[in-house]
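Dear support,

I submitted the protein below through the web form. The confirmation email said the job was done, but the results page showed an empty box. After a refresh the structure appeared. I'm attaching both so you can tell me whether what I see now is the final result or a partial one.
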Amino acid sequence: RIQDSWVERGQRMPTAPYAALHRQSAGRLTNGPAAAAAFGGLAVISVSLVALGVLTASAGHTKAGAVLSANAVESANAVEANDACANGFPADFVWGLGTAAYQIEGGWNATNRSPSIWDVFSHTKGAVAGGDTGDVADDVIHRWRDDIALMSELGLKHYRFSLSWSRMMSWDGHSMVPNEPGIAWYSDFLDGLLEAGITAHVTLYHWDLPQALHEHRGGWHTPDNERILTEFEAYATLAFERLGSRVATWFTFNEPWTFTVSGYSAGNHAPGCVPAQAGRGPCAGGDVTPYVVSTNVLNAHARAVAVYRTRFAATLGGRISITLNCEFARPLTNSAADAAAAERALQFWLGWGV
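What the results page shows now:
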């Protein structure tokens, strides 16, 4: 069950920003090493935690190749050495395991949890293959003690998981307010990790916006949305206050490129927005929507980081950053055109976040 939570496998779709990369590529790329997203002095390798991508490009065309997703150390050892890690990984490199709340928790209404955009999306007919939902998932909400025992059996020392905003807080008709049963569950879970000698690394947002904020506060898709920024800042502050003493590293967002493009342009992730929906209502905005979403997300990240660094870092001693995903690109030759193509690819993948 833990192994199955490592990687979400999905189909890459020709989204608006990705299509722009297709149109603008003028040189050739070759495969590169896994991208380590350096932000705030903290290096993070994503998809969650190791991903090696192959991206090739020629004039006017790009092609996404196979992606090797990590299965912990075994996969890393099997990867052919390249110039980025010819001498092996640094002695202080952190090996761990990562999951996402909606992918594993289950307990869709346990601890007074309210719906997220992924609850609504997965229950929409035709949205998910096989009609699968996260209602039960790996049932971690009820089996967390067994899961921690499995982690210990594996020798795991670092675990990255995400909080469900919809479990930490509830909608009171005006704003999100603390949900004590949900907070208590996460508190117990963190205590269990500590007792097992497992260091906790916690993500605030892994794609599961509370549905109430999407509907009633403009979500991520409303331009310059101060309401969502205020809500996220309050959520982050609550998490730091109530859970921060047991968290080594905070991540504000997991892979904003993925949920920005897949959720608000391709429509194959929650909340399922596509450019054809331009007009009235949520998700209106057409091709500009992913850029609106990205702007709000980065501003929300900045709010949370400022709160942590000014109010909590000195006393809690933790760190805060963001997880950025990237299919790394290197020029195939030394030509200027190939170098420019590689740079464009990196800007479309990683440049959005930094």
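Response: this is the final, complete result; the empty box was a page-load delay. Residues 215 and 282 are 7 Å apart (CA to CA).
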